[in-house]
Amino acid sequence: MSRVVVPENFRRESELGARLQNAERLLIALDFDGTISPLVARPEDARALPATARLLRKLDELAAATVASARPTFLALVSGRDIASLQVVAEPGEHSFLVGSHGAELRTPVTANLDPAVPLTEAQRELLATVTEVLESVQSKSPGSFLEYKTLSTVLHTRGMGTEEASGAVVMAEKALASLNGVSLNGVSLKHGKEILEAAVAHSSKGEGLIWLREQTGADCLLFAGDDVTDEQGFAALKAGQDVTVKVGSGETIAEFRIYGPESLPALLQLVLDVRS
Ligand SMILES: O=P(O)(O)OC[C@H]1O[C@H](O[C@H]2O[C@H](CO)[C@@H](O)[C@H](O)[C@H]2O)[C@H](O)[C@@H](O)[C@@H]1O
């Protein structure tokens, strides 16, 4: 069971603080929607809470200042969004690593601002067009739903619909995809998230993204905070008792610690700055 840490207690949570302080090479990896930003009706309207945005800028500066030192602190955003969308809504600093599309897109600070376009194979392009057509048909029969078009996936959003209508739309989409004639769905990864169903043409996970980040940074302690079901694969890839896993908000989790929501994140980031600056 994860331990709830309320902001006022961070300083007394000696174990959490000690791991962050004692790490030689620390990496702070944060999910975006539901962690850095509160969840909102439209994906394009999501933004970091002002206090979080300010502290992320400070952590990005800390990353720049310590990168060549014996005790670096690295920062990464690890999102289900594609990197092009993440750059717009998260406005990441120049010294941050970016993991987009649930681990399928990987950028170091040096490559983060290069062309975000991901080359798709012809087969992926065709498959994405096919699943998108299916989801468009479902969406047209599901008032209140809408689609989000991403580099490697299409997402059916049901936020704002009634609970029954929303689960009906998701089931309809799953059935329609499963009954596609003559199309192999081996290349499709279906991901359930918070009031979304995503059909991706790349198989990747946040766990793979975090393993890549550890290789890139040589971090001996990695803090990962996330709110969604896809973040559980990230928690699973980390080392119990050495790394720090933080579930943001309610819901089942394998994370060791839990905070109430995005509004509690600034206190955690401030603790990181206090023990690492
Ligand atoms: O890994 P994340 O950075 O948390 O991205 C996961 C998905 O986030 C977005 O959807 C969620 O946030 C939306 C805006 O707050 C909300 O409307 C939606 O209901 C949430 O599921 C994003 O739109 C997806 O593409 C990401 O995969």
Structure, described:
The protein has 277 residues and is α/β, with parallel strands linked by helices. The chain has two domains: 26-36 and 50-117 and 204-276, 3-Layer(aba) Sandwich (Rossmann fold); 122-200, Alpha-Beta Plaits, CATH 3.30.70. Helix content is 36%, strand content 19%. The protein contains eight helices and twelve strands. The strands form two sheets. The chain has an eight-stranded mixed beta sheet, sandwiched between helices. A four-stranded antiparallel beta sheet has the order 6-7-9-8, with helices on one face. A hairpin with a 4-residue loop joins β4 (97-100) and β5 (105-107). α2 (50-66) runs parallel beside α8 (265-276) and α4 (122-140) crosses α5. The radius of gyration is 19 Å and the shape is globular. Removes the phosphate from trehalose 6-phosphate to produce free trehalose. GO terms for molecular function: metal ion binding; trehalose-phosphatase activity. Keywords: Hydrolase, Magnesium, Metal-binding.
Write the layout of secondary structure elements.
Blueprint lengths: L2 E2 L9 H9 L3 E5 L19 H17 L6 E6 L4 H8 L6 E4 L4 E3 L14 H19 L5 E4 L3 E5 L5 H16 L10 E5 L2 E5 L5 H12 L3 E6 L4 H6 L7 E5 L8 E3 L5 H12 L1
Parallel strand pairs: 1-12, 2-3, 2-10, 3-4, 10-11, 11-12
Antiparallel strand pairs: 4-5, 6-7, 7-9, 8-9
Helix pairs in contact: 2-8, 4-5
The chain binds the ligand O=P(O)(O)OC[C@H]1O[C@H](O[C@H]2O[C@H](CO)[C@@H](O)[C@H](O)[C@H]2O)[C@H](O)[C@@H](O)[C@@H]1O.
The site of the ligand O=P(O)(O)OC[C@H]1O[C@H](O[C@H]2O[C@H](CO)[C@@H](O)[C@H](O)[C@H]2O)[C@H](O)[C@@H](O)[C@@H]1O has 23 residues, from strand 7 and strand 9.
